[in-house]
Amino acid sequence: MNSSNKQEFDELLAPLIREKFPNYTLTGIESSTKLSDMVTAGNVPDIIIGTKGTIPLSIQEFGLDQDLTELINTSKFDLTRIAPAYLEAMKYYTNGKVIGLPINGPAFALHYNKTLFDKFGVAYPKDGMTWDDAYEIAKKLTRNEGGIQYRGYSERWHQIFMEFNQFGLPYLDAKEDKAAVNTPEWKTLVEGFVRFYKLPGLRFDSKSGYTEEDRKLFATGTSGMQIFAQPETYTSFEWDIVSVPTFKERPNGALWGSPRYLFITNASKQKEAAMNVAAYLTSDEAQLKLSKKGLAPALAKISDEMKKSFNQDSQYYKGKNVGAFLYNKPAAEPPARATGLVNFSKAQGIMIAEVQKMFTEGMEVDVNTALRNAEELINKGIAEQKASKK
Q1: What is the top-level taxon of the source organism (predicted)?
Q2: How do strand 143-145 and strand 110-113 relate by DSSP bridges?
Q3: What is d(CA 150, CA 237) in angstroms, rounded to the nearest whole number?
Q4: CA dist list (Å): 129 to 135, 241, 244, 292, 323
Q5: Following DSSP, what letter does each residue of 150-178 receive, concatenated?
Q6: pLDDT tens, 147-159?
Q7: Which end of the chain is more exposed for a tag (fewer CB within 10 A), N or C?
Q8: Considering only CA atoms, which of 110, 50, 52, 47 is closest in space to residue 85?
Q9: Residues 347-390: tens digit of each pLDDT
């Protein structure tokens, strides 16, 4: 269980599987138990639950990847039922092979403070908005009253706009060892969200403008809208949700995030049973049950019933506009990089730091400067990393 826990396994996944396959014995092993020790002991799990990051860090590291083509064919599993973006996200790491099936996808919604909207007489946001629409709303909510600075929009912006960006943009070039951040698409994306931080009256220093500080604001009741969700903290105001706004250049494009997969290992002695489990958990029946628990369907076609019942069992989203979570279509992954290229992991951090300067007092660089500086620093880091390996 790389991307699961004992509670989810015991209370949600295992009961579903046992109900369908009462003759199967199920054991859930949390990731605190080192996979390397299990491999050494010859006790490799039949299935590993994980996100795409599990592929290089666990599956491939220990040589456990299993091409499922034969199992898919013999079980007559219909891969066209699965959201194409989620299959492509896996193939990004596997040279096009299917080594698992997605159990659920990411799900996001725009949370809005109804109490604040009512206070200032601003109409509530709606499903299907663009970021331009959201910006116009934010302008009406951003004001200083009674010594309190109200914000139209706040966010854990590095994750929402950059890591999970709706354009599916990479930080590194797909074919060469160089940065891929100084592009018209990145410029559109960055300008599209930084404008929320440059509304009249707003001031940010290096701390208050930092992405982890900004995400805390919505829970205080002084911000009108935010995607990053912590509903258990929204106790001092009324709130609801609508679909995540989209860029007009990418209509209906969701944040791409990361689905979770059931990876079947090549060391498994129960591959057919493991395939049965994976196939069942992606069935309409199981996906509806998982949807009610807040796990977004991993399907190409999501039924109206799944949309209406999404997160139905959550104490926080009961009575909310839950269909908003599944309003947009999954976004595509960034293009796969050619083999042998440097994986410069600091690229995202460099980009975040340079973009933050655009709205940090005393720095205020323009978008062209921010992207150019990020490009130069990333290219320098790639060169240094390559040199260190010689």
Answers
A1: Bacteria
A2: unpaired
A3: 14
A4: 10, 12, 8, 25, 14
A5: EBS----HIIIIIIT-TT---SB-SSSSS
A6: 999 999 999 999 8
A7: C
A8: 52
A9: 999 999 999 999 999 998 999 999 999 999 999 999 999 998 87
DSSP letters for 330-350: PPPPPPPPPTT----TTHHHH
Identify the burial level of 184 via C-beta atoms within 10 angstroms of its C-beta, where 0-12 means exposed, 13-18 middle and 19 or more buried.
exposed
Distances (CA, A) of 85 to 31, 77, 105, 150: 26, 18, 10, 38
Query: Could you give phi then psi for residue 360, rounded to 5 degrees?
Result: -105, 125
Distance, in Å, from the CA atom of 131 to the CA atom of 124, rounded to the nearest integer, reads 15
Q: CATH homologous superfamily for 6-106+257-326? A: Periplasmic binding protein-like II (3.40.190.10)
Angle between the 367-388 and 347-356 helix axes, to the nearest 10 degrees? 150
- Each domain of the chain, given as residue ranges in start order, spans 6-106+257-326, 110-253+342-388
DSSP-assigned beta bridge partners for residue 131 = none
d(CA 30, CA 32): 5
- Residue 168 sits at φ, ψ, to 5 deg, of 65, 40
Angle between helices 367-388 and 184-194 (to 10 degrees): 120
Single-letter residue type at 111: H
Length of the chain in residues, anyone? 390
Q: Render pLDDT for 168-204 as a digit per residue (tens, 0 to 9).
A: 899 999 999 999 999 999 999 999 999 999 999 999 9
Contact present, 225 and 112 (Cβ < 8 Å): yes
